[in-house]
Amino acid sequence: MQEAESDSGGGTRIRSLEMRELECFLVLAEELHFGRTGERLYVSQSRVSQLLRSLENRIGARLVERTSRRVALTALGARFLQQLRPAYGLLGDAVDEARAAARSVTGRLRLGFLGSADHRTTAALGLLHARHPQVETAIVEITMADPFGPLRRGEVDAAVLLLPVAEPDLVVGPGFAEQPWTLAVSAGHPLAARSALSAEDLADCRLIAAAPPAPGYWRDYQAPPCTPGGRTIARGPAVTTLQEGLANAAAGRGGMLLCRPTAEAHARADIAFVPVGGLPPSELAVVTGGGHGSALQRAFVRAVADSAGTVRPVPAVPGPC
């Protein structure tokens, strides 16, 4: 709480009033006993005296008369109590209402997802609904070719996207657990019979990648242009959606790197999913627009953090081969 006080220059000087001092005075005015006041406030009797003395120094006059036999309010103390009690009550009501509003998150969250909304995303949504039953959600698919556009255009409030996200106007929140990559290839592809692949083996396969306007660094993370050893990886078809990529892989037009949960969710007889080692892991994270976001957005970010993991470093943007 603050009081305004005019200085000698005619301006206004703001001097703070400690809430603990005001609370102490209100309790002391009820109890008229320093010991009982200290017990109610869980402080020592000497601390009650200190708080009262500090408040009186700020005001510039005595508020309480204390003798060996009794404690009583001065005339000024009685007038101050009459004015302070309703103001202090209103302040408490304002704080209580703000707390209730902060806990009561309502509204409609439009959540974008990339490729497939698997159990990790739905678990976070389930926790959000459990905490805030009045919240409504709409789940919207985001294309591989335009992962960030829906956020910028306001078509979604938050999105679960593949990292890295190196966009200055977007905020990367908590991520789900890191996942290894698998290579989706036609069942008849030479690599389909392998039990596992190394990153260097990708040079023997054209990689299907997202189409523009997805940023180049983001497309290259999912379909690297070269192996860690520097071997060139040929680029296959550019696709707009996950389903287009799977269709091209099944048709033998190239291979597509997918995280393991996505591969498991899209098992089919005409595609083999072969684990790939030696690549930086795949990770999904919740992404929102810039600024502090709405209470609903923050509630979903907390749900992701609590249900699926913690804030992780953003994967580095790959450099040139």
From TrEMBL:
Family: Belongs to the LysR transcriptional regulatory family.
Protein name: DNA-binding transcriptional regulator, LysR family
SUPFAM superfamilies assigned: Periplasmic binding protein-like II, Winged helix' DNA-binding domain
Keyword line: DNA-binding, Transcription, Transcription regulation
Gene3D superfamilies documented for this protein: Periplasmic binding protein-like II, Winged helix-like DNA-binding domain superfamily/Winged helix DNA-binding domain
HTH lysR-type domain residues: 17-74
InterPro entries associated with the record: LysR_HTH_N (IPR000847), LysR_subst-bd (IPR005119), WH-like_DNA-bd_sf (IPR036388), WH_DNA-bd_sf (IPR036390)
Organism: Streptomyces qinglanensis
Gene Ontology MF annotations: DNA binding; DNA-binding transcription factor activity
UniProt GO cellular component terms: protein-DNA complex
Name of one Pfam family that matches: LysR_substrate
